[in-house]
Amino acid sequence: MTAETNSPEETFALGREIGKNASPGDVYVLVGDLGVGKTVFTQGVAEGLGIEEAVCSPTFTILQVYEGGRLPFYHFDVYRIKDAEEMEEIGYEDYFYGNGVCFVEWGDLIEEILPEHCRKIVICKDLGKGTDFRRITVEGCRPGKGV
Ligand code: ADP
Ligand code: MG
User: Fold this and answer.
1) What is the rounded distance in angstroms from the CA atom of residue 30 to the CA atom of residue 129?
2) What is the Cα–Cα distance from 84 to 110, expressed in whole angstroms?
């Protein structure tokens, strides 16, 4: 699926739809440059899951857990991760293979430990179409597992 948005609100709304439809065990990785809208999208997901708490990028803590919604929500930002060992210290397997919903900002940095069932969301800009334009693609993580 590919969508195009022209405002943070539209990107948020797209995330909200994913959140409303998310199932236990879903793992999504968000790929895209700094400031492209990964966190805005994730905030929409949280709202779609019924989470009322404010969601911001856990850049320094790597993982933020939200228990207040329809399903547990695990928001990772692995931008500052040094190696897979650091993910092991967090106990990432309990989350990736658990019954909540995982969103992993910068997930492509930990490609080797992503589960088979994860889906990739790629957000990119196209400055020719304006500073607020974003193209958002939701795809399967592994070849042959696409939507
Ligand atoms: P990231 O988490 O990818 O680093 P953020 O979500 O924190 O990025 O920030 C995205 C920034 O881009 C916000 O300041 C937001 O207002 C702005 N923005 C402008 N247009 C869009 C859009 N179409 N979708 C998402 N964010 C947008
Ligand atoms: Mg972010």
Assistant:
1) 22
2) 7
pTM, rounded to two decimals: 0.94
Q: What is the pLDDT of residues 46-91, one digit of tens each?
A: 999 999 999 998 888 899 999 999 999 999 999 999 888 899 999 9
Pairing, β 134-140 against β 119-125: antiparallel
Three-state secondary-structure class, residue 53: coil
Q: Could you give the 3-state DSSP secondary structure of residue 29?
A: strand
Instruction: Tell me the C-alpha distance between 77 and 104, whole Å.
Output: 6
Of 33, 42, 48, 21, nearest to 134 by C-alpha is 33
Cα(38) to ligand 2 centroid in Å equals 5
User: Which residues have C-beta atoms less than 6 Å from ligand 1?
Assistant: 5-8, 10-11, 32, 34-40, 57, 105, 132, 134
What is the rounded distance in angstroms from the CA atom of residue 126 to the CA atom of residue 36? 11
Residue with tokens 């179409």: 129
